[in-house]
Amino acid sequence: MAGVSGAAYTVGVAKGTAKVLPQAATQALSSVPKAASALPRAAAEMLPNEPAREALAATRALTDTHPRRQQRRVWSGDGTAHIDVRGMTAADTGRRSRLAQSVPRALRGLKGVRWAQVNAVTGQVLVAFDEGRVDLSTLLDTVRDVEREHGTRSDDFSWRQPTHPGDATPIAAVATELAADCVATGAAAFQTFFRISPLPRRLRSALALLEVERDLRRGLKRRIGPIETDFVLTLANAAVHGLSQGIATPAVDSLYRTSLLADVVSRRRTWQRREPELAGRAESVPRSAPHPPPRPGPRPKGPIERWNDRLAPLAPGVAGTVLALTRDAGRAADALQAAVPRAARYGREGFATAVGREMSRRGVVTMNAGAYRRLDRVSAVVIDAGVLVSDDGEPDPLADAVLDAAGSGGSTVLMSTHPAAQDLLARVDETIDDGTLTDHVRRLQGEGHGVLVVSADDEEALVAADVGVALPGTNTAAWWSADLVASENGLADVWRVLRAAAVACAVSESSVHLAQAGSALGALHALVAARTRLSSFGLAPVQVAALLALARGTAAGLRATRLGEPRRVEHVAWHELDPHEVYHRLQRRASMPSPNGADGSWPMRALRPVLELTVPGVGVIGEQSRDALGMLRSVRDELSDPLTPVLAVGAVASAVVGSGVDGILVGSVMTGNAMLSGVQRLRAERALRELTAEQEVVARRVVVEDLDRLADAKVEKVPARRLMPGDVIELRGSDLVPADARLLTAEEMEVDESSLTGESMPVPKDTEATPGAAVAERSGMVFDGTSVLTGSAYAVVVATGQATEAGRATRTARSAPRPAGVQARLHEVTKKALPATAIGGAAVTGIGMLRGMPLRDAVAAGVSVAVAAVPEGLPLVATVAQAGGARRLSRQGTLVRASRALEALGRVDVVCFDKTGTLTEGRLRVSRLASADADLDPDGAEGRSLLAAAAHASPDVPPDRVGSVPHATDRAVLEHADVAGQVHRNGWKSVTELPFQTQRGYSATLGRLDDDGMVLAVKGAPESVLPMCRDAPSSAMAEELASDGLRVLAVAERRHDLPEETDDVEPLVGELTLLGFVGIADTPRADASEGVRRLSDAGVRPIMVTGDHPETARATAAKTGIANGEVLTGADLERMPERERIRRVAECTVFARVTPEQKTQIVAALQKSGRVVAMIGDGINDAAAIRMADVGIGVRARRSASAQSAADLVLSGADMRQVHDALLEGRALWRRVRDAVSILVGGNAGEVAFMVLGTTLAGQAPINTRQMLLVNMLTDMFPALAIAVAGGRNDDADDDEPVGSLLGSSLTRAVAVRGGATALGATLAWTAGRWTGRRQRAGTMGLAALVLTQLGQTLLIGRDSKLVVGTSAASVLALIAAVQTPGLSQFLGCTPLGPVAWTIVLGAAVVGTVVAAKAARRGSIEAR
User: Fold this and answer.
1) Which of 34-48, 953-967, 1399-1413 reaches the highest mean pLDDT?
2) Is the dihedral of CA 482, 485, 490, 496 positive or negative?
3) Predicted local distance difference test score (pLDDT) of residue 681
4) CB burial readout 300-317, b (16+ within 10 A) else e
5) Nearest CA-CA partner of 166 in 266, 251, 241
6) How many CB atoms lie within 10 A of CB 678?
7) In the Cβ-directed half-sphere of 555, how many Cα atoms lie within 13 Å?
8) Phi first, then psi: what are they for 1094, rounded to 5°?
9) Of 630 and 1016, which is predicted with more confidence?
10) Higher pLDDT, 810 or 1005
């Protein structure tokens, strides 16, 4: 009771002090503004210069300690003044209106005043005047006179108005605070050096309580105002810490205020530079203030606000607990100070000041600096589409970059409609078709979002937004309603703000974690540290955490705003323009640097000669350095795992309680895990680089001197990545198109665009403009990733990289959440395990104190248990398990680009197949022969005759050159004819060929048959050939074949009136006799049906998604065994509301005529219906859906790299059975990880139970921290890694269907069994040791039994794996060496054991293992 009373007394005193402080501050400062006001204005006017007058004004503002602001703020410079007007914030709108008219009228009556206008938003009057004819004092007197006339002379100003960006008050406040911190740091150092007695540390507790109890701080703000509250508390904090020898606090504060001072100075300089633009004309001043509806709810809380709410009741409780346990008010005061979340606040402040400083440097005017501090609460971005449209009526080149940045942090993106921005609508989550922007802002806020608005002229939306960003536009008055006003760089500034918003929440969360770590360590230090260390290092953990948070926040802010430039994407309809106009337009653009260097093409073009000379050498030289940097990055990424800060805190906690060696050991384990994981990650990245190098496309770039003589120009080969808009390239047959390009010339050119459109038929190309055409119909364009089948061309590059149609298709899935991987699933386990370890540590501490242990020893024992029981091997298990699975798949021909996808593979229950090139071979083959009224037998006489005639009308090439025939239909006919016994070569001799042309619609060959003389063979489109046949044959059969999804060729011949020789065959084509029709299709792969069957047997539903014809899709589905019912088309999906679309997609198995965007909609609908989706494809048109899916699988059989770049897994061939093998590997991975987790978590659970039980029985923990770490290494880490990496057992019953959650009943049962059996074996040996020997011997026996019992259970799981058996044997040998080796045994706190002791240990371990085996078998039977 004494402790509880003492706690209540301490907290009560602190709260009472905090309550008195506002009153004392108010009384002490109330006389200051009166004295300042009493200073005659004449004296102020006699000050020597403008800075001195500004300093006086700032001093008066800082002493304005009232609930409402009383001091008038004035900013003036370069003949412009902004003057506060009393009464402009009054509730009486009529009086405000009269005042707004009278003040400017009176000022305009003064000689030398050019214009005056009241700013309705800020409540200030803006005056432009001639400083030689009228001075500022006269202007102020005039304003005061008008205020008297209207009865507002005694009115106050509202604190709600943001500080004017030109006001010097913030600079004066921060400079004063910085000076106070520096003085306090020096005073504390002086006292420490000369050993002057300091003030009691407990005086800091009142200030700490104001930081923790936000209600008290808000009460102080209501009394003396927000700026004065921060100012007074900062000075008080500096004084108290300076006089109580608290060096660290003011030292860290001074670093923060240095950054803050640079921020406020840069903001003011930017305003001074842009003030003529924002306030240089009367028209730029808003005459009326927008009045949007009130916010429907409070602003959402960010990570820091949520932590503050939790901390308010927690901090006094911690201080009270420390007081109750130690009966030391100084320690309780230190615990209360440790609870102050300084790191959380400084992390966000460092980020905000860095972002603000950089944006000011770039010309952005900060109207309200609080906007940067609200970025971590932005979860929705509303964009006025007009800002994304350039002056020429096309989407701005930076529009894509802005939309990408808006959604990069997971925010919901909304955009209004605009005729010129229709192409951008697919990039946003919601389109604003009805209502105003303000309506949608308020709706989003009502749903709990923090909203950022980007607009040029919507004043109400900018005011309503939580963060309003205005762009230069015609309505300059709207800028005053915004928080941030972009510079002439426009969207480049918006892009940086949105990038900062995307990472702001993560920065705040990281800062909160640092604050929690610092507070926990500070409270622990206050509880157990020696008094000599307490006075010197009491708050060191808190200050170090604050310093780290400040540094990390600053670095994150600079990275978000400094690194990189937004990528420009041109939205010009190049296909609608004349090719020469396209070329000259791009040349003009390339020769002009874009604003702010945002366009990468101009500087890169200027540096091209240097790059092309130096890059190869740099690549060779930099390989080793790249690997070294990659290793560092990998280790850093692994250290960002959630367990890392827990282990780091544990290491420091071990040092705090007096065991520095244990802290070093824990830190070594943490670093070792990160390095091992980093090596695994580096290997995977190296394999990916090798794949990328293999896929690099080489382009032929033309050095243009004369556009009309391209054939004579020099051609140089360059990597496709070096192409830039405006370059001219040469294309030939079999080339892979390296970029999007507009054709300048084209000769008999056909392109395979199936990778982009899904259509397997060749597409003829020409140079004609195609206004309004869809992508598939733009005959004058060639697209990145497509293949040239035949012909040649010259083209000018219009887009590269992400700006191409392929890149845009890939980016449409930008908002898709990616599978989190095994690490994320293990984080769920961690969240469950860590509280258990903390409870175990607390239990050991509590029991130890109840058994009479000293407080310090009890806490040390509890900390050692909590730290050692952390399953530190979980991150490494995830990395190694995924790396092992990736290696096994690579041996089967599947490259794993993103190992985290292996986790999702085990849960996949739907596989979406692209058709062309995935389920099918991606090449045309003859599939049916028919006469005018019936199908023909391919082996019959009519069928062979028809096939021979079709082959006669194809190019005459030898059998070994058929594969090089450029036209796909010709190649299909010739290949089939060769397979049929070369029916076309018997006695045939070609004389003259007429090749296929799109305009003509057919091909023909005049030749001689040995027995029949001259023959003219013709094949082509039925609509072209049938009209030239005699007797007007019916087209019914052709229509029937086409309805089955086949490409139909009509075959006819002529055998009369033919010359022996001629060079012109076309006049002879007529009076033909129809022989029949040849049906050509992209046929299914031989292994497709087997792969589909295996997936179905494994509980996975196969779906086909194609851009091809519905009948073609239906036929392919039937041949491959995909359930074939209703076929949904893309048009059907577009007409459905979202709810119906989700339902229908979940039921359907075949989708046809779908665009890349619709493929992503199908994947998203399946995910919303609760499915885990894998998407398999090989083309550009599949890339977005592949990226959207939980698991994206690219097929490497074709040359298009887009699908492979977007994929998580890449199949080296097109064997669909590989997909089934990959799914089984994913399921096996889950099983191995589950077993490894049961070893780690279950073993730690047994260790904690053993420690708690031993402390209960003996009053002291049976084993120490070093021994616990030894147990973890021998029984947890290496055996668990062996289990995780072991292969085999893919025929396990668990692999028959998709796996569920890792946190299932099977894992819970395995952890409980292992924990109970481990505790049983260790307790038996330890108890026997207590009865037969001293305590150290008993502890060693318990340690040995703990290890052997866990290893025995590990062998039960992995007895079939040589790796597991070998690892377990090595662990046993290591245990024996650690226990029996003198020196090492003593270091670990052990003692060598004799034969009897080892026999007891072995027997106890056998008992525990047998119990575990029986419990596991019983649980397995019950589960069935």
Assistant:
1) 1399-1413
2) negative
3) 63
4) bebbbbebbeebbeebbe
5) 266
6) 21
7) 9
8) -65, -40
9) 1016
10) 1005
**Close Cβ partners of 1145 (under 8 Å, ≥ 6 residues apart):** 1128, 1133, 1151, 1162, 1165, 1166, 1169
CA distance 798 to 1119: 41
- Number of separate domains in the chain: 5
1078 and 1173 share a domain? no
Check residue 596 and give left, alpha or beta (phi > 0: left; psi -120 to 50: alpha): left
Identify the burial level of 817 via C-beta atoms within 10 angstroms of its C-beta, where 0-12 means exposed, 13-18 middle and 19 or more buried: exposed
Q: Is residue 1292 located within the same domain as residue 1358? A: yes
CB 364 within 8 A of CB 486: yes
- Domain co-membership, 1264 together with 1412: yes
> CB neighbours (10 Å) of residue 679?
15
Average per-residue pLDDT for the chain: 79
Known catalytic residue: 914?
Answer: yes
Residue 378 lies in a domain: yes
Q: Which two tokens stand for residue 358?
A: 């950089």
Q: Which domain holds residue 653?
A: 641-694
- Domain boundary among the residues 527, 545, 562 is at 562
Which tokens go with 1001?
């619609």
Looking at residue 1078, which CATH number applies to its domain?
3.40.1110.10
Question: Would you say 1251 and 1262 are in contact if contact means Cβ atoms under 8 Å apart?
Answer: yes
Query: Which stretch of 428-432, 636-640, 1136-1140, 1222-1226 has the lowest confidence by average pLDDT?
Result: 636-640
**Dist. CA 648–CA 664, nearest whole Å:** 10
**CA distance linking residue 1325 with residue 1322, whole number of Å:** 5
Q: What are the residues facing 787 on neighbouring strands?
A: 736, 752
- Is residue 1275 situated within a structural domain? yes
**What are the strands, taking DSSP E only, across 571-691?**
none
- Express each pLDDT in 778-793 by its tens digit: 889 999 888 888 788 9
Strands 1002-1009, 1013-1020: parallel, antiparallel or unpaired by DSSP? antiparallel
Distances (CA, A) of 391 to 208, 284, 388, 486: 55, 21, 10, 17
DSSP-derived letter for residue 389 is B
Residue 1400 exposed, middle or buried by CB count within 10 Å (0-12, 13-18, 19+): buried
Phi-psi region of 1337 (alpha: psi -120 to 50; beta: other; left: phi over 0): alpha
* Catalytic entry in 740, 914, 1108, 1182: 914
